[in-house]
Amino acid sequence: MTATTALVAGGVHGGLLYRGRRDASNVAALTFDDAPHPLYEPLLLDLLRRSGMHATFFVIGRNAQAYPYFVRDMVAQGHEVGNHTYHHVRLPPLSPGAARDELQWANTLLSSLTGRPVRYFRPPGATTRPPRWRWRAPWA
Ligand SMILES: [Zn+2]
Fold first, then answer.
1. What's the gap in Å between 84 CA and the centre of ligand 1?
2. Between 41 and which of 46, 51, 70, 129 could a Cys-Cys bridge form, CB atoms 3.0 to 4.6 Å apart?
3. pTM of the shown model
4. Burial 30-57 (b: 16+ CB within 10 A, else e)
5. Is residue 43 part of a domain?
6. Coil, strand, or helix at residue 99?
7. Domain around 66
8. Domain for residue 18, yes or no?
9. How far, in Å, from the CA of 107 to the mean position of ligand 1?
């Protein structure tokens, strides 16, 4: 499980490239990939609850299928749940149909577990733009 700082926004100002919102200070977005993990999830959720912080979890569909109660706990505690494909596969080698299935299977499962639509997607390996085709999220 890895934690990264998500890009909220960005751009160029005064000749400088920046990440995040320029008008905000002391703001960071906590994101965790490859969730839920049976060992780390209870510890992480407890730490976030005790510290009053919220995060976005990029959830692997098959992990959510195995540990649905952690996904429900995430939402109950006010965290965001994002799609990290169903099998945690890198998308570029896949056909467009297989990539769409990976996204849709995870979306369908996560929506059924959380009762709300999935708004964010993070591709495994951070590869978003395959060389042979372009994909568009089925929910976009
Ligand atoms: Zn991952």
1. 7
2. 70
3. 0.75
4. bbbbbbbbeeebeebbeebeeeeeebbb
5. yes
6. helix
7. 29-126
8. no
9. 16
Indicate which CATH number applies to the domain containing 66.
3.20.20.370
Distance (angstroms) between ligand 1 centre and the Cα of 60 equals 8
**Which amino acid is it at 44?**
L
Asked, for residue 38, whether it belongs to a domain, the answer is yes
Interval 36-89: pLDDT, tens: 999 999 999 999 999 999 999 999 999 999 999 999 999 999 999 999 999 999
From the CA of 99, how far away is ligand 1's center (Å)? 15
pLDDT tens string 98-123: 999 999 999 999 999 999 999 999 99
55-59 and 30-35: which strand pairing? parallel
Number of domain units in the chain: 1
